[in-house]
Amino acid sequence: MSDAKAVADRLMKVKRLNALLTPPKDLRKSLSVQAAAARPTGVLYGMPVAVKDNICTLEFTTSCGSRILEGYRSPYDATAIAKLKAAGALIAGKTNCDEFAMGSSTEHSAYGRVIHPLDKTRVPGGSSGGSAALVGAGVVPAALGSETGGSVRQPASFCGVVGIKPTYGRVSRYGLVAFGSSLDQIGVLGRSVHDAARVLSVISGRDSRDATCEDRDPLRLPTVPESLQGFVVGLPREYFPPELDPAVRRACERAVRLMKEQGAAVREVSLPHTAYAVPTYYVIAPAEASSNLARYDGVRYGPRFDGAADLRTLYRTTRGQGFGPEVRRRILVGTYVLSAGYYDAYYRRAQQMRALIAQDFRNVFDRGVDLLFTPTTPTPAFKAGEKLGDPIAMYLSDIFTVTANLAGLPAMSIPIGQVKGLPIGGQLIGQAFLEDEMIEAAYALERVVPATDEA
Amino acid sequence: MSVTRDEVLRIARLAELDVDEDALPELADQMSRILDYVAQLSAVPANGSVKVFVPGADAIRFRADEVIPSPLAFGPKEFAPAFKEGFFVVPRLDQFE
Hints:
Chain A is of the alpha/beta class.
């Protein structure tokens, strides 16, 4: 029981980060109940795992960082949560996030922004910013996040932790609150490659409750390789543009040198449609969000904003008052691009561009490249407020991560250096369902890269 | 692409979303900028030679046609804003549109 108490104490110590949405009293009580019930034979026995607030848990509320689900309690556990519990892990509270996972800085939460664990003037990234901040602050060894366009890898990179987004279909989404259904995946943040990978291996695998989850065994954990002998690593030139932050470039070059020293063959490759990834994403994701978020109407769950004399007014006031500005903006853009007369110009074109982006990756992998290495983000963590007034500038911070979501590929970020004390992440992009190869390479890189040294 | 104030209102009605009168000019401006930005997608050849992307497996997986229970720890009474005698309670529909 002392373990559960120690976890709760640690979580309370970082209250200033505003990373946790669960009240301290509820957390303490639940952790001791969970610890008493946890299976001692489970592979994650006693491991505290914090969970992003858009993943349904029987313990605690699931608000998605939104007023429209304030106080909502789910009547079931997400499959990923049920699997964690069956492995003996403890659900260590719900983490703050951008509302409905829409954002790249965790400034779009209805419950206040999350503070970067190393610099209070900066953002932790987003949308899984609460999960990244807690792992970065050393409070929990791992946390669940979710990705639609980079929401695990980008905050992992900003907070100096490991973040893995698995292949589309690798992890069941039963109980993950839907945002962009052709893109969404649950991902894992961990303080090391091993912590993230072992949680991922537990939550992965088939699930009859999610038809988009592939009929495959859980991910097999690879061993730490002796070297990178035999690996062919591609460096896509579009991910190293002239305007790339010089420290990010230096850190990447150092990581590449270290991979070569470990025996990897490195070659430059090209993914010519990369420049179109962000515009493609910002048609598809809002379109799917406008449809998925139609269910929040003040009728079935969450608070109702009362006083409406008729049903339409109830819908409109509940949604108008319950959704924050970024969610409203995306619902409107999504509704616009799907509306009569615009579908072909926007949504259909975006799905075609998406096919071209996915084909870029296939072309490279077909030519013998095993993995790609890129920076995770163009810059280290930016200042709070810096991009709030300019949605497109905010969207562009996902420029290197969003392609893997569009193509459904596994990808991960690992810390590869720092600049003025701020972490820099390097990204590995793997082939569909070959997470084990990607994780193997990450193990090898993690072992040699000076993650906390200035680049 | 310039979105007008009236267009924002029309879209907001389609989305069943109340929008503040004061917020309209900024929303119209931001939507215009976002739509201008995504207009780059016109680089896709319009002749239909590019297929659309479908995520996930190439083929639909069939499964046994049987009911799998999804047990809930508690019912809608616990989380619905208004629930009575097995029904979600809502105000009357003003008119059929």
